[in-house]
Amino acid sequence: MSTSTTFAQRLEDAMLTLLGRRPFYAALCAQTQVVPAGDDIPTAATDGRTVWVSPAFAERLDDDQLAALLAHEVMHIARVDAHRGLAWETRMAGDDPHLRAQVHDAFNAAADLIINTLLVNDGFTLPPDGVTLRSRHLPAPVREYVTAHSPDEWVTEELADLWLEAMQDDDAAPCLLGDLLVPAEFSGDSDGDGPSTPSPAEMQEAVAEAQAQAGRMVAAAAEAQARSARSADAGWDTLPGWAREFMERLTTPKQDWRTILRQQVHEVAGDPDWSYSRVHIPTYDATGCIAPTLQSQPSVPLVAVLLDSSGSVDDSLLAEFWSEIEGMRQEIDVLMVGHFTTGLQRLETYDRHTPVAPVDRVDGGTDIPAAYSELLDTLRTRPPMHPTLGSLNRPSLVIVLSDMLSDMTPERFPDNPPATLWLGGDKDFVPPFGTVIDCNH
Q1: Could you report the per-residue pLDDT of 352-362, keeping only the tens digit for each?
Q2: From CA 317, how far away is CA 423, in angstroms rounded?
Q3: pTM over 0.85
Q4: How far apart are CA 240 and CA 39, in angstroms?
Q5: Domains defined for the chain, CATH in brackets
């Protein structure tokens, strides 16, 4: 019997194991191409689309372990780990090949730890040597982090950062169950060109598309799970916990708030023949939230910032926010910063040539609707205070930075507000309109 036939039979047996015990994971695998790996992949790997499994490694595993290996790899795809890993690697290591290798392994190890913990909690028997909470060589900072947080609070990038520090101290590579390969769209072409380094915009677009594809994949698996149970409710109840959470957050995946903030300001600072308004389609809310609309007359883009000066915003977040605003000031025509407590206290205008100057905090409460309304009223009724403003009296984008501890009754806000981003509230904050950016991720 040929090796390929034997491998195919092993995969079929593992799939039957999943189908009988874990139909949700079987449905994920059914949507994924699983192929035999070459000698360059000793265990398993995925590029976010395809899964490669070493026939020699599979031969050493029993059906339960091979089923766990398949579930492990398709979870990497569902979590968009290959794309997120490349984005983090590019951001952390740039063009340094040695550092990129370390960053790559650190992210892979962090993702493996999260996935393996979820699989163990779901009753899987893992292949030997995969990184788990019981691993003897788990770095101390990583162990402290996972002890201090529940698994649903673990963030891959935060774990990877801790792992990278430990690797740089002792230069010890983690033990990995598989590898995260360069996503297919950046892995090179048929002419033999090597992997390409994506630009931030290309990487962001690729991550968004991978997230959308993962959402469809998990949704289809959830539907298959429901159909395999006696009722849809029973199918949902028997989904793995991580999958239930994934489905609940499908329309609002978390992204780095700085990236989203810059994306929105870049949109506003682009072609002056376009204005921007909120999109109410969940798929677009998850990744963009502002869409262009062609105007009959061009205007100068104006970004307005409402900054809570009552002292309730975290100092570190405030410092990072000012840094981002100062960087973006050079890319937009007009930036107006309104400081507020129970009302609008001060309104300042900046252009590309005027550095942003942070101001001291003041004591007082917080009334966001009052400050928001006063900002729009001020812009609408007073003469322009900057020569490039022309006749513009409405911001293209409003950014609110606050802890959101205010009466947020929708009726207290003006009708037809401009596109708005809300930064600084807790995870349960629901805005009256606009889009929340989770500053904790």
Answers
A1: 777 776 666 67
A2: 10
A3: no
A4: 33
A5: 3-248 (no CATH), 257-437 (3.40.50)
